[in-house]
Each structure stands twice: as C-alpha cells, then as structure tokens.
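Page 37, continued from 36.
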C-alpha cells in the first residue's frame, strides 16, 4: 500500500526563516509595526506576487522588512513550525539572519531569544524539533560575513548549530570568504554554502575546496560536470535541493527538466527543501510530492528524510531520536 505524502516523516534543512512569513502574518506584523504595504505584493492567501528574479529580491526585502521585534520572530518561528508539524515534518533546520534583525534594531541576543522561544513553544505543543543556522549575506561583503561568523563563535548556543553563506552567488564568489570559513573550520563549526544554484560547476568546486562545507545549498548545477558529481559523492557532501524554488526562479523550466532525480539516481545524497515557501507557493510536503511524481517510492522518500537528519548539524542524541521516528 502506498502511503500518503502526509504519512511520510519529513525533514527540512534549507529554509530561510524570515522568508517563511505567510501573507496573513505579513499583514499582521505590518499593522502592528505601522508599515504601509502595497496590495499588489500579495497573490492570494498563500503566496506573493513577483515578476522576475530582480523583482523577487525587491519584494523579498519589502515583505521581510515587516519583521521588527523579538516577538515577531517568536510568532514567525512558531507559525512556520506549526505548519510543518501539521504535515508530519519531524525536524527543521532553518537559516536565520542576525543582519536582518540588527537592521530592524534588535540585538543579536534579543532576536535569537525570540526565535528560540517560538521553537520551544512549537516543540512543546507539536513535538517538532528545530535548530538554526546563522547566515552570512554575501552581497554585504566579506567583512559583514566575517563579523556575523565571529559573533556566532563568540556566543555559543545549543540551538544555533551551523553557519551558512547566502545571497548573491554570481557577484560574490567563494574566494572572498576564505578567511571566515577557515576560522569556522578551525573551530569545527558546521558549514553549509549556497552554491550551484545560479553559478556553474567551477564555482561549486571552489565552494567545496575553499570553504569546506559538508552540505551545499542547491548544488544542482553540479550535474553539468560528470567529474564534479563523482567528487561530491566521494566527499560525501549532501545537497540541499529546492526543486520548486529553482523552477519558480526559472533556472529550470519544469520538474522534468530539473536535475534532482538524475542526481538521486547517480547516488548523490539528496534532501528536498522549500527554501522561501510562500514566495514560490512551496511547502516541504509539496517537495516530497514532487519527488514522488518523479518516481520515488515511499522508502526512497524516507531516505531523503534520513539524509537530512544524518547530515543535520544538531547533536548525535537528537539525531538518534529523530531517526527512530522514520
Ligand atoms: Zn536558499
């Protein structure tokens, strides 16, 4: 008997917390923080309207700019985890941005406390476990990324389990961030890097060799070079793929054209993720469903969850408990 997608235990390790904000929550925060939002941002109850990639970046900034306080972060975190739990998601590792929080006047600690309060509340009510990855933003430059990483290392926190590199991949290559990622490596701090979403194989190789990630955000354009796919397999790097995100931003024309199934078939360790869910009308359950339509069996779908947990940045005990649920 085939299980429903809901019955498959799921995990998500590539989602930008600020970008999980639902239209309803966006309106609520805007009202609470006295921000005027134009109605043409909204595309119905579940998603936002944008035209092309540059418009997406612009709208992304406007929409996430309504998140102003630690209480907003708490509610945002709780709401997203609640939604996930309803879809039988057992673990979420979300990327967060202290840069965003500081731009809105929060401190590093106050924003993190907001996030963790939301995480605890959701864990108590829905038994969903979540941990967090601090993102450095490439297009704010190497110094900004370095300061963000330094702050993470100087303030150890059990819920903050990794460091990520996000933002403009095309204009800010891995070479610029070597110093920061050497420092993180030296402290054995887990690393994931967005690579091979917009840029091709050469930059993926640079990201791997220069920044020492154990996971790649997207990484799907590795398919363009046979040797690179083998290299990723040999190193045991897991790909945080986000098929709906890539189709929505027109990197691939449809799911058939997307390389996720080919990478899976070639034996690369794959996870599927929603990235910026309401911007793409995506959900983690939806991504699992995409994989089912591409031909994965229930056991293969569960192997995606197992990959996510095994490559998660959380502690061993948490992993063992989660693996038990699959
Ligand atoms: Zn991403």
């Amino acid at each position: 008997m085939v299980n429903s997608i809901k019955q498959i235990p799921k995990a998500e390790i590539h989602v930008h917390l600020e970008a999980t904000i639902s239209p309803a929550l966006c309106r609520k925060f805007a009202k609470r923080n006295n921000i005027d939002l134009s109605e043409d941002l909204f595309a119905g109850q579940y998603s936002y309207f944008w035209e092309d990639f540059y418009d997406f970046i612009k709208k992304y900034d406007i929409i996430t700019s309504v998140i102003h306080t630690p209480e907003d972060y708490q509610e945002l975190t709780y709401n997203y985890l609640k939604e996930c739990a309803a879809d039988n998601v057992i673990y979420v590792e979300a990327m967060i941005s202290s840069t965003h929080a500081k731009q809105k006047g929060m401190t590093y600690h106050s924003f993190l406390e907001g996030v963790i309060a939301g995480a605890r509340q959701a864990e108590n009510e829905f038994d969903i476990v979540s941990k967090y990855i601090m993102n450095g933003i490439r297009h704010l430059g190497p110094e900004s990324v370095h300061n963000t990483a330094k702050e993470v290392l100087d303030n150890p926190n059990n819920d903050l389990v990794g460091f990520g590199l996000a933002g403009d991949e095309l204009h800010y290559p891995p070479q610029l961030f070597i110093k920061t990622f050497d420092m993180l490596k030296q402290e054995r701090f887990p690393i994931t890097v967005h690579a091979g979403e917009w840029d091709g194989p050469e930059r993926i190789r640079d990201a791997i060799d220069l920044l020492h990630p154990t996971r790649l955000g997207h990484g799907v354009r590795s398919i363009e070079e046979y040797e690179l796919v083998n290299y990723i397999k040999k190193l045991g790097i897991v790909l945080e793929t986000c098929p709906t995100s890539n189709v929505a931003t027109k990197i691939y024309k449809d799911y058939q054209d997307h390389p996720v199934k080919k990478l899976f078939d070639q034996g690369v360790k794959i996870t599927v993720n929603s990235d910026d869910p309401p911007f793409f009308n995506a959900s983690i359950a939806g991504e699992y469903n995409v994989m089912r339509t591409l031909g994965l069996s229930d056991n293969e779908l569960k192997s995606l969850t197992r990959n996510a947990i095994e490559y998660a940045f959380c502690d061993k005990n948490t992993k063992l408990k989660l693996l038990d649920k699959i």
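The radius of gyration is 18 Å. Flag for discussion at group meeting. The mean pLDDT is 96.
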